[in-house]
Write a structure and sequence with these properties.
mainly alpha, 71% helix, elongated
Length: 594
């Protein structure tokens, strides 16, 4: 108030005697005499030095004993420092003190800048006045009697306040205590979330197609931890102090990318993937978690009825999938946190080198978001890995025995009803067998139905992006198995047509299964799932009318970026066409015959 009312008048009348500088310095000295003792009393009254030592001891315990990932409630935080609620309130108070100090620092710095601007304007006005006076003297007395030109002195801003003051030092001391306690508070809040029983809630994200993520859940862990992280970061930003905000941003990033990512990845493996293994877990296979224990429950007279069993199975699958969804949710939360902090810098921090450094600290959250996404993809790959034996079994059941590939069509069919038969894999077809095949249920239809039955409970409970990754992984496993079976077949021209129809049916099923609109085209499926693309390329290769067309087919497909078969693969499959001679195939592809 003193500066606002008196500085303009003093600056106007007493600037030659540096009155404006003296007023700013006087006000700052009075502020320091009044505020510094208050900050010192605050440090002593709240015992910030003692709390900081206890916090440092807790940090060392967490680093040596790995207590953040064990069953301790809050790493001993309540015993050494205080309850989380009390410390959170104390941090609000400390942040408010730092905010007021930063507001005054910005105001007085702005005042210093404005004083120097005014002095610079007066300096320029004096130079202009001297220049005009000199020009008038030249016109009045002539060039010979003109006064000696004085060299213009450049303006030098005056250092009104020192770079280091008692106020800045005591504020830095409080800021150091604040940062250390805030860090430990964040770790204790996360540990409390780790040790609590998970609470399940709706994911809040639905797929664009029915049956995808319609029953998806998430746990309270990710929301609790990310809320604590966001609260700590925003509170540090509210102080307005770039150093404090940068320190907390870096620590939040390290905690998210280290502690939280490790815990969530381990939970996804132990409480998610391990319980979803077909046959040994919740998904049905040769046996399941419930069918394996049904006989024991029956003997004890405690077996649930079928409806209860199905409910428990669905609930178990949903909760296991929630552990996988958490990683995807965390990735989205980190992205939102980066946006919020970036917006806070633009709105609350003046342009300076410290603000640019703070922006770089916030941008370091992008690799952490990518780490959560990669961990999420890795868990889906692990889930697909546990499902591979079941998928291979389904492919084997649909394809039939290895010997059926070389038998006639009639001997490779099994009855499934009064009017329809189920065809096994066989492409050594004559005209009669090809016509009969049109009246039968193809093995691809049965395979797709079996895969859909296997994946349906997972698609209902996984986030849309994860559900698509699961579908592509399972289809890739099935496609690799099918390719191996095709290598044991013989193909006629009609059989090649049948193969093309079967692979198109598989491709159509793949497009129906995925949820993302970006995967609704053939080329998108080819890029996302190479094994399916290879099957389509094999079908196109075997459907050439003449061997002379093979080179054109391969070269045009390569130009379009849609060819994954090697020359050895092309030779192997072309040799399976009964109409093509192996010698001509080798000559065409310039491969020596073994």
């Amino acid at each position: 108030s003193t500066l606002r009312h008196h500085l303009p008048m003093v600056s106007h009348y007493l600037h030659k005697a540096d009155g404006d500088v003296a007023v700013v310095q006087l006000v700052h000295v009075q502020v320091e005499h009044a505020v510094v003792p208050l900050f010192q009393y605050y440090i002593q009254d709240r015992q910030l030095d003692v709390v900081a030592r206890n916090v440092g001891r807790l940090d060392s315990i967490a680093a040596t004993d790995d207590s953040l990932t064990n069953d301790m409630d809050d790493c001993g935080f309540s015993m050494e420092v205080g309850t989380l609620a009390d410390v959170d309130g104390a941090m609000e108070e400390a942040a408010l003190c730092l905010q007021h100090a930063e507001s005054y620092s910005r105001f007085v710095q702005h005042t210093v800048t404005e004083v120097n601007k005014a002095r610079e304007l007066r300096h320029k006005a004096d130079q202009e006045a001297r220049k005009l006076e000199r020009e008038r003297a030249e016109w009045a007395t002539g060039m010979a009697n003109a006064p000696v030109v004085e060299r213009e002195q450049p303006f030098k801003p005056q250092e009104i306040l020192p770079s280091r003051t008692q106020l800045l030092e005591v504020v830095a001391e409080v800021g150091g205590y604040y940062s250390g306690i805030e860090r430990c508070l964040l770790l204790a809040s996360m540990q409390r979330a780790f040790s609590s029983l998970p609470q399940y809630s709706e994911l809040g994200v639905k797929g664009s197609t029915p049956g995808v993520a319609s029953q998806a859940l998430k746990t309270s862990l990710v929301d609790t931890c990310l809320f604590a992280t966001r609260r700590s970061a925003q509170r540090a930003f509210a102080t307005g102090h770039c150093g404090t905000a940068s320190a907390m941003t870096n620590f939040c990033g390290d905690t998210l990318g280290g502690v939280l990512l490790e815990v969530m990845t381990r939970r996804a493996q132990e409480a998610g993937i391990a319980k979803l293994k077909p046959g040994d877990g919740l998904l049905e296979g040769t046996s399941s978690l419930f069918t394996a224990t049904a006989s024991n429950l029956m003997r004890q007279g405690q077996a649930d009825d079928e409806a209860t069993r199905q409910y428990k199975m669905r609930q178990g699958i949903a909760r296991a999938c929630a552990m996988l969804n958490d990683l995807d949710v965390a990735s989205n939360h980190v992205t939102e946190l980066e946006k919020v902090l970036t917006q806070s810098i633009e709105q609350g921090f003046p342009a300076s080198s410290e603000a640019e450094q703070l922006k770089m600290c916030v941008k370091s959250l992008t690799p952490i978001m990518e780490s959560f996404s990669l961990a999420s993809d890795s868990t889906i790959e692990s889930l697909v890995g546990t499902m591979k034996p079941r998928v291979r079994s389904l492919v084997a059941d649909a394809v039939g025995s290895e010997s059926s590939a070389s038998t006639s069509f009639m001997s490779s069919s099994v009855g499934v009803g009064k009017d329809r038969t189920a065809a096994r894999m066989n492409y050594n077809l004559n005209e009669a067998a090809y016509k009969l095949l049109q009246l039968s249920e193809g093995y691809i239809s049965r395979l797709c139905a079996s895969l859909d039955e296997l994946m349906r409970p997972l698609k209902l409970n996984l986030a849309p992006r994860l559900a698509d990754a699961l579908v592509l992984g399972v289809l890739g496993t099935a496609a690799k198995r099918l390719e191996g079976s095709l290598r044991r077949c013989q193909f006629t021209a009609l059989g090649a047509l049948s193969l093309d129809a079967d692979m198109r049916e598989l491709l159509s099923y793949a497009k129906e299964c995925v949820d993302s609109p970006e995967l609704n085209s053939n080329m998108a499926i080819y890029r996302a799932c190479t094994p399916v693309a290879r099957l389509m390329q094999i079908a196109r290769l075997l459907n050439v009318d003449d061997l002379e067309d093979v080179v054109d087919l391969i070269s045009s497909s390569k130009r379009k970026g849609n060819w994954d078969l090697k020359l050895e693969d092309a030779k192997a499959f072309l040799s399976l066409r009964v109409e093509f001679e192996g010698r001509k195939v080798n000559e065409l592809l310039n491969i020596e015959e073994e």
